[in-house]
Amino acid sequence: MKIDTEERKSRFTLALLFSGMVLLFLIANAILTGLLIFYMVYHGQLQLGDAELKAGSLVLNLLLWSIVIGAVLAALASRFPLKPINKILNAINRLAAGDYTARLSFKGPISKAPPVREITNSFNLMATELQHTEELRSDFVNIFSHEFKTPIVSIAGFAKLLKRGNLPEERQKEYLDAIEEGSMRLAQMATNVLNLTKVENQSILTDVRRFNLSEQLRTSMLLLESKWTKKHIELLLPSEEYYMSGNEELMKQVWINLFDNAIKFSPDYGTVEAQIHLDGGCFHVLVSNFGEPIPEESMGKIFNKFYQADESHAAEGNGVGLAVVKKIVDLHGGTVSALCRDGKTTFTVTFPA
Fold first, then answer.
1. Distance between CA atoms of 57 and 94, rounded to whole angstroms?
2. What is the pTM of this model?
3. Across 199-219, average pLDDT
4. Measured over all CA atoms, what is the biggest interatomic distance in the chain, rounded to whole angstroms?
């Protein structure tokens, strides 16, 4: 990780602070030992002229008293000057034990020191992110359990009804359609989680080849035909052909997730549009739909794992699709962003051409 100039200065200041503390202890030890020896000589407890107190004996006395005074200073140091370090260690131990509410705060002049401010800010930011991730993980487990259980119960229920027999053909077809829909829903959830796990563990882009981006958009939308025909959604797709280099299978997941998201939040008889622009040596792919806008406070979180802007969970989903999109786009050296304006939500994906 690259360290900027300000961070280097802060690290250097921190090193000076600890070095100065050690130097201060050494000076204090020397001064106190010297004062003690002077006191003993002044009051006649040490006679420098005596034969038994030669240089070696004096050095031995100095050494012994230096050790005693150093031990006392070290004991005091652990209670007072090194108290901030103990505070940091306690906070780290709390965090390691799973208490993500642990935060660092210092009072007095020490809180204004740049190294202390950096340590405090970095630790609190880390604790906040860990707490947020834990909350999202807990929500995901609850949501995923519910989303997973609903289609399973539905499939089991319709299967039991079919097993009884003596049902009209029309009713049998209806139940079979419900079982198929539930199965596809389970498959989609499992696929999204597996895809996220796969791309999270991938740091190098492989299987890079040149492919028709426009055709891939059309094919991806075709795979979701049952969803957009059910809502009678009008599609506006690019007619001009564009080609890009990348991992074709991974990129297909990007468009399927973005189209699925657009269809899901579009009203009946709505419109989903995809556009491709080539500008400044980059491809800009825009996927737009009209419908319920993303809340402003959620805009910075929608690409996080397990996050769902729809807190009521009325819409299907488990907060994984957009996280997969973000990771795949990052692997391709691109960016993805979302914008809501005048009832229109647009996701923009940018790649180097």
1. 50
2. 0.54
3. 85
4. 122
